[in-house]
Amino acid sequence: MKTWVRTYGANPLHLLGLLATFLVFGYAALQIFQDPVWYRYLFWFAGAALVHDLVLAPLYGLLDRSVRPLLHRSSRTATGNPGDINYLRVPAFLSGLLLLTFFSSISRGGGRAFEAASGMTEDVFLGRWLLISGVFFLLSAVAYAVRGRRSTAEPTPVNGP
Length: 161
Description:
The N and C termini lie far apart (about 60 Å). The longest helix has about 35 residues, at about 40-75. By secondary structure, the chain is an all-alpha fold. It has helices spanning about 1-10, 10-35, 40-75, 85-100, 105, 110-120, 125-150. Helices cover about 75% and strands about 0% of the residues. The radius of gyration is 25 Å and the shape is flat.
């Protein structure tokens, strides 16, 4: 085993995982290239990567930097707790993930095809997404308040003899 790790540089399970990943990628590539308009997948993938890297990533950073000072000002210490920002990041991430997953339904992009396939309308998706997002932020605020209460509750000093 030591010779394997010294030669390959990692555990044999690493190689097995890598091979499994390449097999899944190869299968997906074969399925895509069987489509007569396979180049559309390539344009979509490149466009998604560019939009994320050139638009969304700087927007994440800007929002993060603009919220940090607000959290530090509301904290009892001058610098605040660096982990406090995660009480906003986690619900925002989960809400964004739901929006990304169900964007077509939230924006009512399915139209009659969705209604014909499911027998339901898309009218409820926006309200439900807003409600679930609100619950995420509410739970996060409760967790933040509980953590803040625990950190401010100091033990009572024990008087010595």
